[in-house]
């Protein structure tokens, strides 16, 4: 009996061991299958991501190639436009072959409204400045003073308005200080604040008058006012002296410099206008804020860089003395100065006193 029981126990043990071994083997096989499946899945994902990367790279390469072709086309078109533009400008410059024939004597020209007489074109017709403010710029000896004389004389001869005159060189406009419509004259940098202050006081006075009658500009005020107002002009020669002296340590405008910039933005409605002249057309003299509120008349300068600063294009470096270029109503216009002798200048001024 004992032997039988022992045999049965051994058999049960053998059967249990076989079952356990089978279970372990099955589990091992299942884990292996899962590992293989996971590895295949990971490889599939990696292959897919690699394919996406290659696809994106192909798209980038195609885009760059197409963009390059487009950029090349744009560049060629732009270069051709520049060539055509320069050709047109050169033709305009060559309209007058003999420069001496383009000089017309100033004899007094009837003003068109309150526009400034900037000079004459190659056909001899007056070029009128309709904008509010102007900067006349060019290298020493380019003829700025000879351009300013007819502008100021014609303004006074036609009784267009009052003049506030800053002659920082101290010699060129001294003979005009006693003219009847010259309200204020200074001839040095120390006192230049006085002429700007007088101009600003007139601006403030007019602002009060306009507010009393509800007028928005000079034309509207003169329609309802008992006493009509005329225009008023601030003219400063050698303006670079002001921009050099009136700056803070960061280069920002202060004092008179800041006042001129502020007034250039606001004086138009009240009948005011500002004309500045400078030998140095650098960006620290013609700052961005001032440039946005003025029209620049560019005269002869030393290189194309200065020409670009003044009028936004080349050309001023190729001008002769007393010639100028300016963008008027969107068009680059060549302007010749009226010729005026010292005798004629003295004669005109004597009649204005």
Describe this structure in words.
With 353 residues, the chain is an alpha/beta fold. It folds into 2 domains: 44-94; 106-350, Rossmann fold (3-Layer(aba) Sandwich), CATH 3.40.50.300. The chain contains 9 helices and 10 strands. It has helices spanning 2-93, 144-157, 192-213, 218-224, 240-245, 255-266, 288-292, 304-311, 342-350; strands spanning 116-120, 126-129, 134-137, 161-167, 182-186, 231-237, 272-278, 295-299, 323-328, 331-336. The chain has an 8-stranded mixed beta sheet with strand order 5-4-6-7-3-8-9-10, sandwiched between helices. The chain has a two-stranded antiparallel ribbon with strand order 1-2. A hairpin with a 2-residue loop joins strand 9 (323-328) and strand 10.
């Amino acid at each position: 009996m004992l032997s039988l029981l022992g045999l049965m126990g051994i058999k049960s043990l053998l059967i249990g061991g076989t079952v356990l071994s089978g279970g372990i083997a099955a589990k091992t096989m299942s884990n292996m299958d899962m590992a293989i499946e996971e590895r295949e899945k990971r490889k599939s994902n990696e292959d897919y991501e690699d394919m996406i990367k290659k696809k994106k790279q192909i798209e980038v390469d195609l885009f760059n190639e197409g963009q390059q072709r487009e950029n090349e086309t744009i560049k060629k078109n732009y270069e051709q436009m520049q060539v055509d533009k320069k050709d047109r400008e050169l033709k305009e410059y060559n309209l007058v072959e003999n420069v001496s024939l383009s000089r017309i004597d100033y004899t007094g020209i009837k003003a068109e409204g309150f526009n400034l007489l900037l000079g004459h074109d190659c056909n001899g017709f007056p070029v009128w400045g309709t904008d509010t403010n102007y900067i006349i710029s060019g290298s020493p000896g380019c003829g700025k003073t000879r351009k300013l004389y007819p502008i100021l004389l014609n303004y006074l001869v036609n009784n267009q308005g009052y003049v506030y005159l800053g002659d920082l060189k101290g010699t060129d406009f001294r003979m005009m200080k006693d003219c009847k419509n010259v309200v204020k004259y200074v001839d040095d940098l120390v006192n230049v604040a006085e002429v700007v202050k007088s101009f600003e006081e007139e601006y403030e006075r007019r602002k009060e008058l306009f507010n009393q009658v509800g007028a928005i500009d000079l034309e509207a005020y003169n329609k309802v006012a008992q006493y009509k107002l005329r225009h008023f002009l601030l003219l400063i020669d050698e303006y670079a002296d002001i921009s050099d002296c009136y700056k803070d340590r960061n280069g920002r405008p202060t004092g008179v410099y800041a006042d001129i910039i502020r007034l250039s933005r606001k004086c138009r409605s009240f009948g005011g206008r500002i004309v500045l002249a400078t030998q140095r057309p650098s960006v620290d003299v013609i700052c961005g804020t001032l440039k946005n509120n003025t029209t620049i008349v560019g005269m002869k300068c030393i290189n194309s860089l200065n020409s670009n600063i003044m009028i936004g294009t080349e050309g001023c470096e190729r001008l002769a003395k007393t010639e100028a270029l300016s963008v008027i109503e969107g068009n680059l216009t060549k302007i010749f100065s009226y010729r005026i002798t010292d005798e004629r200048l003295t004669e005109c001024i004597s009649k204005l006193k």
